[in-house]
Amino acid sequence: MKITDISWIHSGRAVYVKIETDKDITGYGEATNFAPRSVIGLIEEIRPYLLGEDPRRIEHLWQESFRRLFARGGPITGSALAGIDMALWDIKGKELDTPVYELLGGLARTRVRLYGHVTGHSAEEIAANAKRLADRGVTAIRYRGFHDMDAKGLHDHQRAVRQQVEYTEAIRSAVGDDVDLIIECHGRYDPDHAVQLARQVAEFNPLYIEDPVRHENPQAFRYLRSHTGIPLATGERGHSKWDFRELVVDGLVDYVRPDICWAAGFTEMKKIAALAEVYYVNLVPHNTQGPLGSAASLHASLAISNVALMEAPFAGRDPDVDVVSPWPVVEDGYALPPTGPGLGVEFHEDAVAPPAEPRRQHPVLRALDGSVRDW
């Protein structure tokens, strides 16, 4: 079997990769990132390396794609490789008429626990939304608060801490003690305010605090470790096994959170998981991109032994996606294994909308003094 073409499909922020073969087997992957045109550009650069190659040599083609790039690493490389890698695994599964998770070693578990998202502009609103999600069987809920400040283009650490504590208390009261709470910080805080938050929410027993500080300096988590016993999680902005080394080897976090659309696909995610397993660190895959990414994340979560739960914005909600079918079956807050070959879904190219113009602008946040804050 040979690769005859590699192309991409762009829809808004979404980037899908299509790999065709001379055996009439087509594979699809997702390379969605916050810089879609940059990802597309790198896919075009990698394309000549792979044409005419055997798509079944996935590890070889991953190395070929990565190591021929003299300037490599980071989110663009991670996403371009992710889309290509997913499509190659999709092809192999379709050729062998088996789901990708079987090719990754089979089911490490028979279902995957999901966590859902809630938002709200007040403690009452977010607590009510959390209660509705819990009533639909979701057993873990993630929230970040400060949405009202986002709407004003503002982020103030002290106000955000107060609001997240208020929201945490309200949500815990609404859903009871049997639902796990995940406090998402989006990398907003400096270390001192992250410590303040951790100390004030400890009584509500959160499962973990997610991305309390920015990701550039992993050693900031050492300071947090010394000031709180609450579990810590980070890693959605990690793009290769090397990005996770310091976090894992130095024991800085309890959970790492690679995104299969950003961290170079199945091939690299398995290696990140193996590194984490050595140090008894669990994975909670980040998953907020698109439907092919969700399908791939589910296959990885089913096959990787140290996955604790998986992010799923769709948990507790009725699916409204028409780009793929069928959508994952969810029962009692757990996703069940897909049964179809490859990624287990059919990708509907005709349902992909063309990219909207003008280009998407990322939110701009300022502190009270007008200085730049992270989104």
UniProtKB/TrEMBL annotation:
Protease keyword on record: no
EC identifiers of the protein: 4.2.1.6
GO molecular-function terms, A-Z: galactonate dehydratase activity
GO biological process: amino acid catabolic process
Signal peptide bounds: none
The UniProt record lists the keyword Lyase: yes
Keywords, in A-Z order: Lyase
Mandelate racemase/muconate lactonizing enzyme C-terminal domain span: 123-231
InterPro entries for the chain: DgoD-like, Enolase-like_C_sf, Enolase-like_N, Enolase_C-like, Mandel_Rmase/mucon_lact_enz_CS, Mandelate_racemase_C, Mandelate_racemase_N_dom
Gene3D superfamilies: Enolase-like C-terminal domain, Enolase-like, N-terminal domain
SUPFAM superfamilies: Enolase C-terminal domain-like, Enolase N-terminal domain-like
SMART domains in UniProt: MR_MLE (SM00922)
Protein name: Galactonate dehydratase
Natural source organism: Actinopolymorpha pittospori
